[in-house]
Amino acid sequence: MGRRNLNARMFRAALAAALCFFCVGPSLGAQKRAAVVNLENRRKVTLVKFEIIAPAEKRKPEKVLAAIGKSLGAGDRIDLPLARASGCVFEARWKFEDLEDSGSVDLCTDAHIVLVD
Fold this sequence. Notes:
Elements: H1 2-23, E1 36-41, E2 47-54, E3 63-67, E4 77-81, E5 89-96, E6 100-106, E7 112-115
Parallel strand pairs: 1-7
Antiparallel strand pairs: 1-4, 2-3, 2-5, 5-6
């Protein structure tokens, strides 16, 4: 159990660092959200589930903007079309064979998501 928690913490730290790298230095002018997200699984385990979620708003439930339709093997990549939504920052939720987690993604800054150990 201790090793699993350590792996989960290392995974979160690596993902947070990667996301922060792409969030630094907003561009000047209006930001435009990408229409497609490129998702890459660089872990050595299968990605079972991945979703990008728009948060719930007044009288509206949360909305799934993109999701994988089937498992994504180690080293595989996929382009996910995004449903219409306003804003740039959304929640990403993922589940691997060995752990699951979530985090925030800025799709105006970068629409390439790389999941690593």
